[in-house]
Amino acid sequence: MARSKEFEESVVLEKAMRLFWEQGYEKTSMNDLVETMGIHRRSLYDTFTDKHTLFLKAMDRFGERIAARWEAGIKQAATAKEGIWFIFRYVIEGEEDTPAGCMMVNSAVELANRDQSVDHKTSYVFARSEQCLTDLIKKGQQNGEFANPSEAKDLAEHLHNTLLGLRVMARTSASKEKLYRIAEQSIDILEIQKKN
User: Fold this and answer.
1) CA-to-CA distance for 137 and 191, rounded, in angstroms?
2) Are 146 and 139 in contact (CB under 8 A)?
3) What is the domain count for the chain?
4) Is 158 inside any structural domain?
5) Domain carrying residue 86
6) Is residue 34 included in any domain, yes or no?
7) Which pLDDT score is estimated for 4?
8) Residue 51 · residue 137 · CB < 8 Å
9) What CATH number has the domain bearing residue 102?
10) pLDDT of 89-106, one tens digit each?
11) 90 φ, ψ to 5°?
12) What distance, in Å, lies between the first and last C-alpha atoms of the chain?
């Protein structure tokens, strides 16, 4: 007779996600995972197969988390510009009780050039983020908030690149004042009219 699990899979996956987010893939050992997740090594293998599979599931969980946070924040924004500012503030401030920076950016820097699965997952999340920004910029252009007539997709790529840089800088000793200055300069591009 098979033994029933003595843990909630989503709870232990959350713990693994936070550990990978903070330490990265290579630095996180199986012993670290067993200790942090509070489960037996055998249970970890039975449930998640191996460290790499667990890492990919943790990446999925992180991606879902960010998508849900962005969606909720954007829904509460009264304007497109407020929606974009919500995203930038979220990236700069992070969340209480979570590691600094972004697990997707960290994973892309650490592994994407040599791990096709990681590259696929980070590329997918980055594309979703760009699409979210594109939609907000289009909305702002249509309702007259943004004067820049450039393609919304091109402007979104620029803003997303800034967000990636801010996520990296959030892991350093850079001041939040500096990060907000960078954000403001980037968002200001949306209101600049092109000269003939």
Assistant:
1) 11
2) no
3) 1
4) yes
5) 58-191
6) no
7) 45
8) no
9) 1.10.357.10
10) 999 999 999 999 999 999
11) -60, -45
12) 77
